[in-house]
Amino acid sequence: QVVLRQSGGGSVEVGGSLTLSCEVSGIQAIDTCMGWFRQVPGKEREGLGFIFNGGTRTKYSASAKDRFTFSQDAVTNTAHLQLTSLKPEDSGTYFCAAPVDRGLCGVASRFYTYWGQGTQVTVSS
After folding, report:
1. Position 103 confidence tier, pLDDT thresholds 50, 70, 90
2. Closest CA to 64 of 42, 97, 86
3. E-assigned strands of 9-124?
4. Which are the contacts of 35, defined by CB distance < 8 A and separation ≥ 6?
5. Please, which residues have CB within 8 angstroms of residue 76's CB and are 6 or more apart in sequence?
6. Among candidates 44, 24, 42, 19, which has minimal Cα distance to 34?
7. CB 91 within 8 A of CB 121
8. Whole-angstrom Cα distance, residue 122 to residue 23?
9. pLDDT at 110 over 90
10. CA distance 119 to 5
11. pLDDT at residue 46 above 80?
């Protein structure tokens, strides 16, 4: 059984940083790709990008590039999303995700089957 358990998140002021974690069980995170998403009420889930190739390569969406960083820890089987220079529009619920087919990765949510429970990020000005 594949389970993704998220932690981190919270409230931060503009310009601050947060690190979100996604502990994976049932599969090895480095053997697949791990996607990250953000959702705000009333909008579709937005793909932020993914980490793949044993955690050595990353692909970021335009909104995540330069401020967000994906990483993985093979020892703890955990994926991380570091958020920096946060803006109010970064507020939302963040999700990690993993695909059934480890060779099929992408920014869109349709590539992913397993999802974390989500964690809230609130950026205040």
Report:
1. confident
2. 86
3. 10-13, 18-25, 34-39, 46-52, 57-60, 68-73, 78-83, 92-98, 114-115, 119-124
4. 47, 48, 49, 50, 96, 97, 98, 99, 105, 106, 107, 109, 111, 112
5. 23
6. 24
7. yes
8. 21
9. yes
10. 10
11. yes
